[in-house]
Amino acid sequence: MKVLDGILGHQDSDKALVFDYVRLRTTRSIKRVSKCRYFRSNVMYCILCAIYLYINAYGYVDNMTPELEWRLQFLYTSTYYLHVINAIMYLYMWTELRTIFSLFILPDWLNLLGSLLYLVSGWLLPLAYDEEHYDEKIRRSAIINMKWFVVVRLLEILAGSVELIATFGWNIQWYLDYMQDLLLNPIACVGRGFTLDDPDSWANVTLVIAASFYFRYNMVVLFNGSVYEKCTIYEQGDLWYAINSVCYLLCSLRDNEFFWFMPTNGKLIDLSYMARMHNLTSGSNAVSISTNDTELVANAVDKKYTGALVYHRLPSQQLESQ
After folding, report:
1. pLDDT digits (tens, 9 = 90+) for 32-62
2. pTM over 0.90
3. CA–CA separation, 86 and 239 (whole Å)
4. Are 24 and 320 in contact (CB under 8 A)?
5. I need a surface site. Which of 76, 82, 96, 278 has the fewest CB within 10 A?
């Protein structure tokens, strides 16, 4: 148990109660988050989902004022452009690690394609509807051009299908990236693996659920156009996308050491390896470490991984110097 306590950092838990130590770790986490492209992309994703939830909540209220109607229309139009910007942010995020034309980031390219298809459908929407004749009962404008209406529907169906394919690609992308990180950095691999306490697992599941609701909505409308005005399946998809955005935000906070106060800092630790390192480097029976072990620990510190034993054993003066 003593070895496990040392690994999980319980022996230094009293240090976390010191104000300077808490301030130091919190400040460092905030600096890392502010520079993280992944975190900024997830913040934009959360904002986009919040706008969708706002539109769904107030889009069907009775006695809608002109001001509210204008606001909802402005927000609805802005979502097309925010979606494209967010897709570009996720794509740009990978440029630090891989070439932008790598097959590994194909799901991000599909996400960009889907957002562009939604944008084009938004541009063509005024050609299909008569905005001057607004039906208060169904909260929609009258269809005046069935040809353009069909084009808009096909574009949205294609966009929803592309994004559904992208969700499965992101799951494969996460699996490959996680396994590579686990093999290369067993001392402090990001995430906890295939467990339900890992926000990555929840993000993968909720992403597929959300995209499935949109795909179902498009299929229902495709085969039964009469329910187009009344079908609200997409609202359930928006809710699941909002949950998914929170999961991804937690992932980015964890990756940037924001949960340093939690056991193992919210990251998977190779307990067998860390126990061996603890026995070799502590107590009166300490022995010399092999060259490979020394280099591995040094690389972990240089790359600022948050292995519990590595960071919790460092004094505050050394933390300030990193």
Report:
1. 888 889 999 999 999 999 999 999 888 776 6
2. no
3. 18
4. yes
5. 96
d(CA 318, CA 322): 7
User: Residue 189: phi, psi to the nearest 5?
Assistant: -75, 140
Two tokens, residue 159: 């966009």
Nearest C-alpha neighbor of 51 from the set 83, 87, 92: 83
Rounded to the nearest 10°, the torsion over CA 67, 72, 78, 80 is -160
Q: Which two tokens stand for residue 295?
A: 């280099």
What gap in Å lies between CA 182 and CA 194, rounded to an integer? 12
Residue 6 corresponds to which tokens in the numbers above?
């040392």
Using a 10 angstrom Cβ sphere, with 0-12 exposed, 13-18 middle and 19 or more buried, the burial of residue 25 is buried
* pLDDT given at position 33: 87
The residues, ordered by sequence, that sit 6+ positions from 169 with a Cβ below 8 Å of its Cβ are: 106, 107, 110
Cβ(187)–Cβ(305) below 8 Å: yes
To which residue do tokens 């620990």 refer? Answer: 297
